[in-house]
Design goal:
This protein is an alpha/beta fold and 179 residues long. The chain has a single domain, classed as Flavodoxin domain (Rossmann fold, 3-Layer(aba) Sandwich). 34% of the residues lie in helices and 22% in strands. Strands 1, 2, 3, 4, 5 and 6 form a six-stranded mixed beta sheet that branches. Helix 1 links the parallel strand 1 and strand 2. Helix 1 packs parallel to helix 6. The longest helix is centred in the N-terminal third of the chain and has 15 residues. It is globular and about 45 Å long. It starts with a strand and ends with a helix. The model has no long low-confidence stretch (mean pLDDT 97).
Length: 179
């Protein structure tokens, strides 16, 4: 049975290494017959959460920008994949802001069960992505029917396209095929 998979690329850079991971995941997921949609936050207008909690009653954010529409797509997705560069050993600010703006989903009947994290960084020592994984797990813990189903980290890549030829692209492809 095919799944509806939403891939959210959060990098502010065009042709980023984390987006290359997302594209590899998408290729695998598409080849397995899934319906895949990719959203890049790079060109989107996403304001900060105001903390008003009106969304807990309406399941919609009072801020009418791109985050509201993206959250509605997250609501209907069976699988959500986040791709982020690692900045200062953490997910990028764009990803964190989108997670905050997905607050309307907390009290909704969301479809997603499986969440994946794809990340890339110039640093390549072990644990570079651990805070990003932990941050996403904190968000996921608010959704009792969802779980972190996998993560891939590509270290030692900085300039756009530097990931080309990395084994992490094949791993992302395989993860997508099995999502």
């Amino acid at each position: 049975m095919s799944k509806n998979i939403l891939v959210i690329s959060t990098s502010p850079r065009k042709n980023s290494n984390s987006e290359a991971l997302a594209d590899a995941f998408i290729k695998g997921a598409s080849e397995s017959g899934n319906n895949v949609e990719k959203i890049s936050l790079r060109e989107k207008t996403i304001g900060f959460c105001r903390g008003c909690f009106a969304c807990q009653k309406t399941q919609r954010c009072v801020i009418r920008d791109d985050a509201d529409e993206i959250a509605q797509k997250m609501l209907r997705a069976d699988v959500i994949v986040f791709a982020t560069p690692i900045y200062y050993y953490e997910m990028c600010g764009q990803m964190k802001t989108m997670l905050d703006r997905a607050n309307p989903l907390y009290s909704s009947d969301y479809a997603f069960r499986d969440i994946y994290l794809l990340s890339a960084a110039a640093e390549d020592e072990e644990g570079v992505d651990s805070r990003a994984v932990s941050g996403l797990e904190g968000w996921i813990s608010c959704f009792e029917k969802a779980k972190l189903s996998g993560s891939i980290f590509a270290g030692g890549v900085n300039a756009p396209g530097e990931i080309k030829g990395s084994s992490s692209l094949q791993r992302a492809y395989e993860m997508g095929k099995n999502a």
